[in-house]
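ARCHIVE CARD
SHELF: 3
SLOT: left
DATA:
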Amino acid sequence: MRVYFVVVFALLSLVCQAQKEDKVLQQKLQELVKGFKGDVGIYVRNLKTGKIAAIDADTLFPTASMIKVPITVGMFDKIEKQEIRYDSMLTYKDSLLYEGEDLLGSFKDGEKIALKAVLMLMITTSDNTASLWCQLMAGKGTTINAWLDNNGFKQTRVNSRTPGREMNRTKYGWGQTTPKEMSELVVRIREGKVISPRVSERIYRNLIRIYWDTEALSQIPPYVQVASKQGAVNQSRSEVALVNAPHGDYVFCVITKNQKDESWTINNEGWVLIRKVSSLLWNYFEPDSKWKPAKGIEEWY
């Protein structure tokens, strides 16, 4: 009898999953990724209808800079616990520098900056120096990973500078996630369910002010609010976006790995794919929209 109920439950779960699948969109996405030279993971959920389309959405991929979303969650967890104040003034040290084009990295040793500004830079401009500083303050990844695990995110982890994660760092880099988990983390922030409503609201406000807007965001009208985070390393391109669309919110995440195209131009195959997916979804969910991306903008990059 027990086995009977287990089988019935499994069959009902499969039926419910099939009912939630957007088969038309699923087919369109599968056509879009054909011929891609590398591995692709995609997850899409219409928050209004609950319908889903996915391609390897539960497969592990590198996060690259998308790991800054969990890092910011880890920092706000400490703020909410009153272990550090949101309006704290911090002192920048040269030892924090991560070589690159970061704004914070241009600071002089001993300069002061507010924690809230560091948190903004980590997300808005994807400042690596700011991000590593926040990761250090949040607990070197260990504390962040504990929060993720305790809140149902079993695959998303910080690897870099985190004890016991060396093998994972070798394989996935700074962090690892799945398209589904990264999408659902942003959904939970949107719903006010990460740590507290006020924390979720503050994180969401940072996520809607993104400097890096040439990929998924470029295919969505500039007057439509989108919460997003992007990531890129040599063989991987990624982006998660929650679109506050007129006909209902939708979330999606595209991640690649093992790309043959390691170029850093706007025509990188991974970035092209992200733009195509974003364009497909906007026009699919907003079929009456007459907006089109302005021509010639790509010439600037």
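SLOT: right
DATA:
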Amino acid sequence: MRILITNDDGIHAPGLKTLHAIATALAGPDGEVWTVAPAYEQSGVGHCISYTKPMMVENVSDRRFSVEGSPADCVMAALHDCMLDARPDLVLSGVNRGNNAAENTLYSGTIGGAMEAALQGIPAVALSQYYGPENRDLDDPFEAAASHGADVIRRILDATPPHGSGYRLFYNVNFPPVAAADVQGIRLAPQGMRRDTTFSTIPQLSPSGRRFLWIKGADQQIPTDAGTDAALNLDGYITVTPMRADLTAHDTFDALKAINT
């Protein structure tokens, strides 16, 4: 198997090393793992692409490239430049430092990389490691992802239905904030919503008197509704959420039919 890996934490991020090990196990002795990742951190850029400016691509080493752009840029750079001789069979994005459950999904560059792969017709999985008091001080906070990642992806690939017309499926996988031995299992889960909490801003003055705003994340230990992603993660489960790049609210069409003329 030929696998492309990317992320949004940057090419030197420890989670990318974890992902490379997962991809190597999946690719097998006759496979290939290619890395095309951002030259610097791109957290929170979502599915952003560098549409109005060029991006510099550097061949760091064999099958390893850094891109001055977003994760979605990296996927396009890989498919249309770095890997022109043969497209990958699978794209993996992550392993993100921190969860991409609930509303985090909408901001995530990790998800954006997987979404771009799906739009380009390649099977894709985004992987993120939830952080919390039970794993953040471990020697390897990514050990749940490292231990269970390859198995989860194999299960996803084996269960994925044939692609028909329309937007291709991609997957959002979140590993719980626990040690690998304490993982309770794998659960298919819808995207949840953390209630009464949102991203916000904190103002700060520089020494020169200029005013800046820092983005402040929400409390990540707040569970979502029972059976949804973050709630299951906080209960120790790996969650798998199938997604498509279709933002249509299909469930509202009957209620809104009076709009039609």
